[in-house]
Design brief:
The complex is a heterodimer of chains A (258) and B (278). Chain A contains ten helices and ten strands. Chain A is of the alpha/beta class and 258 residues long. Chain A folds into two domains: 171 residues, Rossmann fold; 76 residues, no CATH class. In chain A, the strands form two sheets. A six-stranded mixed sheet of chain A has the order 6-7-8-3-9-10, sandwiched between helices. Chain A has a four-stranded antiparallel sheet with strand order 2-1-4-5, with helices on one face. In chain A, a hairpin with a 2-residue loop joins strand 4 and strand 5. In chain A, helix 3 packs parallel to helix 5. The termini of chain A are far apart. With 278 residues, chain B is mainly α. Chain B has one domain. Chain B is 75% helix and 1% strand. The longest helix of chain B is centred in the middle third of the chain and has 27 residues. Classes of the chains: A alpha/beta (258), B mainly alpha (278). At the A-B interface, helix 2 and helix 3 of A face helix 6, helix 7, helix 8 and helix 12 of B.
Chain lengths: 258, 278
């Protein structure tokens, strides 16, 4: 196997004596779709925040395409091909959907002088066309001119994915992309993420919905109390006793004796 | 046009420019209570250049605006590191320092004030206000404007998309400084007299209040707010001594009913739809 796109080794993070991530190793190959699952408080979002640079790790390496991200400022990491969506949607409410999506393309907009140009001029013109095209692909074209705050929850969730894609990432981190979506919306999101993955984007997904994980990801890593307790296909994971214990608190045998 | 109308319109034009000076940082969520300080820098430096060095008025006023902008850029680095209330306090302190220095600076008259020889009428000042409005329209439609709005709502996410937040804020603060300097230069050359006392924190607060009341989400907000703050006291003039009571009550009422300002982005989009249908 060639070098993985994302290579996390010995990652540690504690908050005031509480070890949230305890020596995590995780590799994600180019083009793979990997799920990071685990009970609430297992440290999944913290791992995302470490990859992202929102937190600095206490120890460990995070390599993306061979480059160690740890010493790189959060703001610069997107230039190395890293983008994400958020568990609690974080769109800019009083900007339009199109503008929110254009924010995602900031790194392709040019230097400080380009910042002074109206959005539709110069390089911005092509970016705006790209944004419209991506929104259309995601079936969101009708909402391009609406304010993000006025949109239904499920739509906002999907706009976040389009916004992250505008950065043209190599690795896309999705934090609970289908939390709060109804069955129909989950289906639409799943189809969209399959399309994204076929376009060559590697996906790392935190998600509780195992049905969704099974439909999207070829591999899942299970985190509990900051440690990886299992890794394999979603079907293998579901049979793993350590995983069942992590989620239910008891090994199934105990029920048999009860 | 009566002298009274011309005087009110001139004041309105100057207040509109000052409002846009405060709007740019405010759009990014930064309360700059030093706007009057930058106005003072623009007013005094342009007055000295036109009085003592015989610069033409446009050149002197432009140079005054550049001086204010340069100072904004210089102090912006350390000042903008502070957040929220502390930023408001730091800019307020800056305002007081500028005012204190000018009151004690005898070369420009000290506390007695400084007469300005050159005079500008309504027409050039109104033209400047129109120019500033066009600039604001341009910047509002630019990526800088969009990034400022994004920073206001979610600094962390905006930074994660690669936006250099401190640089963007410094740019807004500096352009705001230039505009405040311009407003100050025009003020001095219209009223023919400036004194440190005029450029108090109260003036800064009033300017920020007018922008907040007009609304920071759209380019129109500051102009609407400046019009409200300039014209309403005049409309209430018939109430004589009670007019500022009425005015203050009107301000409180508007803020209670429209906490996001008189005109929000959503209002503007609704208006556009109505216009299109009509």
């Amino acid at each position: 196997m060639s070098a993985p796109l994302l290579d996390i080794r010995g990652l540690r993070k504690s908050f005031g004596g509480l070890d949230v991530v305890r020596g995590l190793d995780l590799q994600v190959g180019q083009g793979e779709r990997v799920a990071l699952i685990g009970p609430n408080g297992a440290g999944k979002t913290t791992v995302f925040n470490l990859i992202n640079g929102y937190y600095a790790p206490d120890a460990g390496e995070i390599r993306l395409g061979g480059v160690d991200l740890v010493p790189i400022a959060p703001r610069r990491r997107i230039r190395h091909g890293l983008a994400r969506s958020f568990q609690n949607i974080r769109l800019i409410g009083h900007l339009t959907v199109l503008e929110n999506v254009l924010l995602g393309a900031h790194v392709h907009a040019g230097g400080p002088l380009a910042m002074l140009l109206p959005l539709g001029l110069g390089r911005g013109r092509r970016l705006r066309e790209e944004a419209r095209a991506r929104l259309a692909e995601a079936g969101l074209a009708d909402h391009a001119g609406s304010l993000a705050a006025g949109l239904a929850y499920g739509l906002r969730k999907r706009v976040e994915v389009v916004r992250a894609l505008m950065a043209r990432p190599r690795l896309l981190l999705l934090d609970e992309p289908c939390a709060g979506l109804n069955t129909q919306e989950r289906g639409a999101l799943l189809a969209e993420l399959h399309r994204v993955a076929e376009g060559g984007v590697t996906l790392l997904v935190v998600e509780h919905d195992m049905h969704f994980v099974g439909g999207l990801c070829g591999r899942a890593a299970v985190l509990n109390f900051g440690e990886k307790i299992a890794e394999g296909t979603p079907a293998e994971i579901a049979r793993e006793p350590a995983v069942i214990e992590a989620y239910l608190g008891h090994a199934p045998e105990r029920y048999a004796h009860a | 046009m009566s002298g009274y109308t011309a005087a009110i319109l001139t004041l309105l034009a100057i207040n509109i420019i000052a409002a846009y000076a405060a709007w740019l940082p405010l759009a990014a969520g930064q309360v700059n209570l030093g706007t009057a300080g930058f106005m003072a820098i623009g007013a005094y430096s342009s007055a000295v250049l036109s009085n003592e060095f015989d610069w033409s008025l446009p050149m002197a006023i432009a140079a005054g605006a550049v001086c204010a902008g340069g100072l904004a850029m210089a102090i912006g680095g350390p000042v903008l590191r502070t957040r929220g209330l502390y930023l408001a306090l730091a800019t307020l302190a800056f305002n007081e320092v500028v005012r204190g220095i000018l009151i004690n600076l005898d070369v420009v008259g000290g506390a007695a004030g400084y007469p300005v020889i050159g005079h500008l009428g309504l027409a050039p000042i109104a033209a400047c206000a129109a120019g500033v409005f066009l600039l604001a329209l341009w910047l509002g439609a630019s990526r800088l404007g969009m990034n400022l709005h994004a920073i206001e709502q979610d600094e962390t996410v905006t930074a994660l998309f690669g936006v250099h937040v401190p640089f963007t804020q410094l740019a807004a603060f500096t352009i705001g400084g230039v505009l405040a300097g311009l407003a100050g230069g025009l003020y001095g050359h219209h009223f023919s007299f400036i004194e440190g006392q005029h450029f108090s924190v109260l003036l800064s607060v009033t300017i920020v209040l007018s922008v907040v009341l007009g609304g920071t989400q759209t380019v129109w907000g500051p102009a609407i707010g400046a019009a409200f703050f300039t014209l309403l006291p005049e409309i209430f003039r018939g109430a004589a001594a009670w007019r500022y009571v009425l005015f203050a009550a009107a301000v409180i009422l508007v803020m209670a009913i429209r906490p996001q300002g008189l005109l929000t982005r959503a209002d503007l989009m609704r208006l556009r739809r109505v216009v299109r249908l009509a």
